[in-house]
Amino acid sequence: MSVIVTESPISEKDMIEQAEKALADISRVREGVGKVIFGQESVVERTLVALLAGGHALLVGVPGLAKTRLVETLGVVLGLDSRRIQFTPDLMPSDILGSEVMEQDENGRRSFRFIPGPVFAQLLMADEINRASPRTQSALLQAMQEYHITVAGQRYDLPSPFHVLATQNPLEQEGTYPLPEAQLDRFLMQIDILYPDLDAERRILLETTGTSESRAANAIGPERLKEIQTLVRRMPAPESVVEAILKLVRSARPGQGVAETDRDVAWGPGPRASQALTLCARARALYDGRLAPSVDDVKALAEPVLQHRMALTFAARAEGMSVRDVVARLAKAL
User: Fold this and answer.
1) Does 271 lie in the same domain as 123?
2) Could you tell me if 227 and 242 lie in one domain?
3) Containing domain of residue 22, as a range?
4) Beta bridge partners of 59
5) Any idea what the Cα angle at residue 133 is, between residues 92 and 113, rounded to 5°?
6) pLDDT computed for residue 3 by the predictor
7) Prediction pTM value
8) Pair (200, 60) in one structural domain
9) 144, 56 Cβ separation under 8 angstroms
């Protein structure tokens, strides 16, 4: 998640004025994305909420559901400097971060020069991230959390803003590796992409098989995106929302006095999940044109924020239970 920025309080009038301007910009972004991505309103909403909250998102779905196209479209609409990495089994950490090369000047003196890798971008698309080995996947750990990398003991800061949108094929497919738990926790949300409905698929057929296709146009720039992200962090979180987040996240952990969780959950979400829910609830409220989040926002975001931060016991998996089932049960109890 983004580095916390401390801002001075602003008046309610200024908050309303800034929120109205932000809502107008967000509407332009939604309209721009909608010209290229048909249907999938929930996926677009959650992905934009993750970006407005200043975080990273993991898009999970079978091939052919426009995951890559969505990320490319967002890069254009948001005006971000974008790079793409195609993850493959032979990809090395230096292919992502960059490497040092030895150079020799005209006097014969040798020195090392760092050549930045594709991670130095404002929007990094990690395409099919789970097709690379866990060692290579872990190359993004420091970048996603601390917004800089270290090569040969030297620190290199990443551009601002910096977001990773990774696509992932279902783990049951051939040639995939599960992501390390520490890296999964760096993703603000895991967004599952399902097949489009009938009307959306009909529109896809009609509009993408002709001689021309709709193309995305820029709506805002990176500086404006950072301003909206700051506004999200300044939005108030009602006490009822804070209590709902704490109740939900803590009830998802074994050993907290919830018998069903103790039975079904091997390990649960940490404090980073509470932070993610708080930021995403604020961003979702702004996305919907509201000045403060509600408990309904927490319920709506429980699955994408928590599902990749939990693991079930063997007994629960043997019974055919999924993490989504557990999260849905806990969210319903709020």
Assistant:
1) no
2) no
3) 1-233
4) 167, 191
5) 15
6) 44
7) 0.91
8) yes
9) yes
Judged by DSSP in three states, 18 sits in helix
Give 5's pLDDT tier (boundaries 50, 70, 90).
very low
Residue type present at position 99: S
Q: E strands within the chain?
A: 57-60, 82-86, 98-104, 110-116, 123-127, 148-151, 154-157, 163-168, 189-192, 265-267, 311-312
State the CB neighbour count (10 A cutoff) for residue 315. Answer: 11
Same domain, 28 and 116: yes
CA-nearest of 294, 275, 283 to 232 is 283
Same domain flag for 129 and 257: no
Query: Does 57 share its domain with 18?
Result: yes
Largest CA distance in the chain: 73
For residue 85, the domain's CATH number is 3.40.50.300
CB 56 within 8 A of CB 50: yes
DSSP-derived letter for residue 138 is G
Domain end point (choices 218, 233, 248) = 233
Q: Report the candidate in 218, 238, 239, 222 with the shortest Cα–Cα distance to residue 230.
A: 222
Residue 291 and residue 26: Cα distance in Å, rounded?
Answer: 14
DSSP 167: E
Of the candidates 32, 78, 24, the residue with the CA atom closest to the CA atom of residue 51: 78
Give the separation between CA 285 and CA 278, rounded to whole angstroms.
11
297 and 155, same domain (yes or no): no
> What pLDDT band is residue 170 in, cutting at 50, 70 and 90?
confident
Please provide the DSSP assignment of 88-106 as one string: -TT--HHHHHEEEEEEE-T
pLDDT digits (tens, 9 = 90+) for 55-86: 999 999 888 888 899 999 999 999 999 999 99
CB atoms within 10 A of CB 9: 8
pLDDT, tens digit (0-9, with 9 covering 90-100), for 9-30: 677 888 889 999 999 999 999 9
